[in-house]
Amino acid sequence: MTTATGTDTRLSQTAHLLRRAGMGSSRSELEAYAEQPYADVVEQLLHPDQSPEVPDDVLNRYFTALVTAETPFIWDTRWVYRMTTTARPLQEKMALFWHHVFATAWFKGEHGLSIEAHIDMLRREGLSNFRTLLLELSKDPAMIFWLDNCENHGSDPNENYGRELLELFSMGLGSYSEADVKNAAYAFTGWSFRQPIPLYPYGGFESDFLYRPDDHDGRDKQFLGASGPLNGEDIIDEIVGQEATARFIARHLYNFFVADEAQVPAWSVQEPNDPAAIDTLVQAFRDSDGDMRQVMRVLFNADFFKAARFQRVKCPAEFIIGVFKLTEEHHDEPKPELAGIYFQMAAMGQKLMDPPSVEGWHTGKEWIDSGTLMERVNFAVKHVGNAKAPGIIAIAGRLAAQAPLSTDALVDALLDEAGSLEVSDTTRAALREAAGQGDPAQHATADGVAKLLGLVVATPEYQFA
Q: What residue numbers bound the domain in which 46 lies?
């Protein structure tokens, strides 16, 4: 692989950080962040409350269906707009990360307000202590209905939530016994939700957590070595203290923020790609007692993270919003076509707020097949090919200020604009051939940039973050 500039610069390192801790960046955002030392940028990202909140209520004026939305594609519009325009990129990225881990879908409950509240909880608690996050998850109406804990009664337990809490949300296969599953289920009996008023004819109403003490099994239980009249909080305390939990979450973090791993079901039998990196994250988790902000600080400052450029296939959400960042579309106001983004993302294999199962999405190269790759390339080329897009006009202005550019310098500049993209010699040769054709003066115009940058986003390398 060769780099766009041949040197490791603060801009390229910051671009890497913003692709992983966010969804990419516009050029102005990148340059503003890169004025600070790298560690200071990490700290800014880790404290989203220090940046202004997204004023996404503006969407209610553009898309009135959002006021009483009951379908996921309307809520997706709001989330995509937030991820595109936020000054708190890591807050949104952590919500997306936990949505992958705690996959919860709209299609079972069909209650839009609950799934939106679920995502907002992930957004609010994504950088908090893992214990707090699991507690809020266990009280979340969308999750309670999704995994049937509302059907988990002291006299007739339902093991769905207890099992998935251990297998998919915290410890992974092989780290617990069937007796632990059963006793976890007993501990969460009585954890339910308040049934919202029916949608028709009254409109949308929220739900909230409801504890039914008369439906709780208060007998003594044994769980992971602890014993007594354990309840849900006790189960979570025991889970967070397990090394298996630290290791399972560390592998999820590595897979999502650093480099593609094997699929989650294989983790019980397949070693991680970088055991030393996983050990570092495990230690950070245990030293901080599950403080996710502390763990993410270690991750983003680690050498293994800084070196892992373009080693993850972008999920469709990352891919789409990265294109919007490049073209700077929807930054000032949401455009009408944004309302259809759910269906475009779904064609690429990801329906936000509507994952296919409790296992969530398979990641890495499984995002790519002949159909989804075509959808991705067509989407990127269409948007980058819009010479009237603010980002394309801005890129043309920067290239014009450097004119005249040699063919090699033009290719370097385009790859740099695309996020310091690293490409193979074969890809570079193809881009160089295209850049060497036609009138060089036209390449620094918006039409010229739109054409050449369309080739850049169609490369295999652009699929990677």
A: 12-306
